[in-house]
Amino acid sequence: MAVVEVRGIRKMFGDVPAVDGVDLRTEEGEFLVLLGPSGCGKTTLLRMIAGLETPSDGEVFIGGESVNGLPPRIRKIAMVFQSYALYPHMTVFRNIAFPLKAEGLDRDEQREKVEWAAGLLDITRLLERRPRQLSGGERQRVALARALVREPDVFLLDEPLSNLDAKLRAAARDDLLEFQRRVATTTIYVTHDQVEAMGMGDRIAVMNHGKVHQFGTPEHVYNDPADTFVATFLGSPPMNLLHKGKYVVGFRPEQFLPESVANDGGATTGFTYHVNRVEYLGAERYLYGHVRGFDEETKVIAMLPVTVQVPITTDQDHRFAVASDKVRYFLTETGERVDPEMLQAPLRP
Ligand code: ATP
Fold first, then answer.
1. CA 39 / ligand 1 centre spacing (Å)
2. pLDDT (tens digit per residue) in 153-164
3. Residue 228 domain flag
4. pLDDT of the residue at 349
5. Domain enclosing residue 87, as ranges
6. Is residue 19 assigned to a domain?
7. If you measure from the C-alpha of residue 221 to the centroid of ligand 1, how many angstroms do you get, rounded to a whole number?
8. Residue 80 is part of a domain; what is its CATH number?
9. End of a domain among 193, 223, 253?
10. Atom 28 (ligand 1): residue with closest C-alpha?
11. Is residue 205 helix, strand or coil?
């Protein structure tokens, strides 16, 4: 186990910054997720931690030691990529043993370690097969086993589940988490999937354009997004954002409820909601419309759980409300969140 830290790290490709001054520090044994859209610099950041890419600026520390300039193999890290790159002509056993053989371990030691890793990942029965005789999920476990036998201090995982279908992916996600908890190896996991990030991360670093916009627990980044980028990147559907002069008012679709049910004792902020369309999705109803007093082009979504049975007619105005402590405010100019106490003009419509 080891703490990974990057300080002021930057990577330029020509004059384009792929990673633009990032500071991050894991905790011992933590599962940290790097989340962001395609091209935001997640993979580049991971590759700099691994030593596969040289930073243009800044430093990487593993276990408190600066590893700048050290080659990947002595950083005590193991990487698993999206393409597992198993050797097709070798059995699973030989694939997993490969890094041990390269390190010069004798046959008995190799066997012992392969059996230990295979046991942990529940693939002992697959050891004599070849990669083409495995499912995607099984291949992923073999790739993890191959990373694990080296007993790394740190795992770096780059979208390792992305070529599994949805169902397998959910199962593989559980397996991976359970396995990570068991070995308690510090893990940095790259994904562009916010559901995966929310479900897996102890903490999430939300990235865009080479910068970390926010770093915190899933609850924290979801409930208290630092800016409008984080507010809309997390959550499906994303946070509703209504523009009004210098400010943007934000609330989550599940917080936007008919006035009669929104009031659970605390203060609420009311809106007149014109509903255009209702979608029934079994466990919930999605409403689509706009809010009076704000730009009518801005689509506003409400998500009502099945337990809220208030009838909603379309092409009509309804009184809706959000618990006031759930309303978030941002600056129009920068997108940054502002404390409601700082607001100058009254924002209520
Ligand atoms: P994805 O989720 O699509 O893999 P990412 O967040 O991992 O995206 P990176 O692969 O880190 O993003 O790329 C960040 C930026 O740097 C992108 O604009 C990419 O085009 C650019 N980039 C990455 N590698 C190189 C390279 N070797 N040479 C030039 N530009 C590069």
1. 5
2. 999 999 887 767
3. no
4. 45
5. 4-223
6. yes
7. 24
8. 3.40.50.300
9. 223
10. 13
11. strand
What is the position in ligand 1's atom list of the atom closest to the CA of 47? Answer: 11
Same domain, 48 and 191: yes
Q: Is residue 251 part of a domain?
A: yes
Residue, of 89 and 147, whose pLDDT is higher: 89
User: Cis omega before residue 237 (within 30°)?
Assistant: yes
| Mutation probe of ligand 1 site: the residue of 12, 13, 15 with most atoms within 8 A of C-beta | 13
Q: Are residues 139 and 83 in the same domain?
A: yes
Q: Which of 180, 198, 223 is the last residue of a domain?
A: 223
pTM of the model: 0.89
Smallest CA-to-CA distance from 216 within 198, 239, 238 is with: 198
Same domain, 186 and 38: yes
Atom of ligand 1 nearest to the CA of 19: 14
What does the pLDDT average to over 210-234? 97
Which residue's CA lies nearest to atom 14 of ligand 1? 41
| Residue whose CA lies nearest to ligand 1 atom number 10 | 43
Across 312-324, average pLDDT: 96
What's the gap in Å between 153 CA and the centre of ligand 1?
26
212 and 85, same structural domain? yes
What is the tally of structural domains in the chain? 2
Q: What is the chain's length?
A: 349
Pairing state between β 186-191 and 203-208? unpaired
The ligand 1 atom nearest the CA atom of 44: 11
| pLDDT tens-digit series, residues 27-81 | 999 999 999 999 999 999 999 999 999 999 999 999 999 999 999 888 889 888 7
Shared domain check, 265 and 190: no
Q: Are 40 and 228 in contact (CB under 8 A)?
A: no
List Cα–Cα distances, 77 to 38, 43, 44, 85, 311, in angstroms.
24, 15, 16, 17, 56
Residue with CA at minimum distance from ligand 1 atom 5: 39
Residue 141's Cβ-side half-sphere holds a number of Cα atoms within 13 Å equal to 28
CATH code where residue 330 lies: 2.40.50.140
Asked if residue 160 and residue 20 are part of one domain, the reply reads: yes
Q: Are residues 114 and 172 in the same domain?
A: yes
CA distance 294 to 348: 10
Provide the 10 A C-beta neighbour count for residue 313.
9
Average pLDDT in the 208-222 region? 97
Percent of the chain with pLDDT over 90: 69
Best residue among 19, 40, 211 to mutate for probing ligand 1's pocket (most ligand atoms within 8 Å of CB) is 40
Q: Which residues line ligand 1 (CB under 6 A)?
A: 13, 18, 36, 38-44, 192
The closest residue, in CA terms, to atom 27 on ligand 1 is 13
Query: Which of ligand 1's atoms lies nearest the C-alpha of 43?
Result: 7
Q: Cα of 45 to ligand 1 centre, how many Å?
A: 10
> Are 77 and 197 in a shared domain?
yes
Residue 155 corresponds to which tokens in the numbers above? 């795992």
